[in-house]
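comment on this one:
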Amino acid sequence: MDWDKLRIFHMVVMAGSFTRAAKQLNLGQSSVSRQIQALETSLDIQLFRRQHKGLLLTPQGELIYQASQEIAAKLDLTEALLYESQGAVRGVLTVGCSAAYSGLGLMPYIKEFLDTYPSIRLNLKIYGEDQTFDPQSADIIIATHPPLQSGYVTRLLFSCRLGYYASQQYLQQYGTPLSIEDLDYHSLLTFKSSREESRNKVQSFLQQGSQRGHHREAVFESNSYATLLEAVKAGIGIGELYNFMVKEQHEGIEILPAYTQTVEYYLIYPEQLHFSARIQAFCTFIQQKVMPFAN
């Protein structure tokens, strides 16, 4: 398969039209069209269906596009590693993490990181807090669980606490629980997840220490820890939050500290990127920044 023709095909798909692809490639539209026709002829397939709204990939075109994406990604990685072998910290760095950590634990330091490494372009991919992440979706993942697959380096980033928090307004109005049994008489806010492990944690929060015959129910649920934080700050009730989310006392006061859980966050990346200057620069930088949150 001719890579030049495949590269042009890839650019046409990315651009969404022959005209835009031709401009980006600095070629004439007729030249781009001829290259696509030649690729279709050599493979004996049709890659696009032409519609008045634009181009639509055929099933065969989808397969070729997936292959072109993989080739382009490998070429980008090879180019970045070649630069890095000469000591340069540059290129695209894709970081994946949960919404809870990205907004409250990571974003405050992104500008400083990019100022420190101006030749890096950062792509931040957010996955839902109730989703299972795909370690292949990013160069490096920040997650609370090591991957099940082999071939990945896992480094402890930091340990934090998952504890019970309430606003000062709520505690003044309803009193401070002095024991886990006291939660029977308070409004509880829970994280709602489709993952079995998270559901078990919620049930533990709702039932731990409950008196016989008393069934606790959450008055508020959300699949976003950031939303739970806002609910706690609004005085709706008592919620389970990570301690790195609650930076000021006016945002939430920790209660029942004896019942907090320790949660570990990890940096996870493929073994082949272990000597990548981008990966090592990011790991070193972010580990220094999260030290205040260490348990």
Observations:
- DSSP finds ten helices and eleven strands in the chain.
- The mean pLDDT is 83.
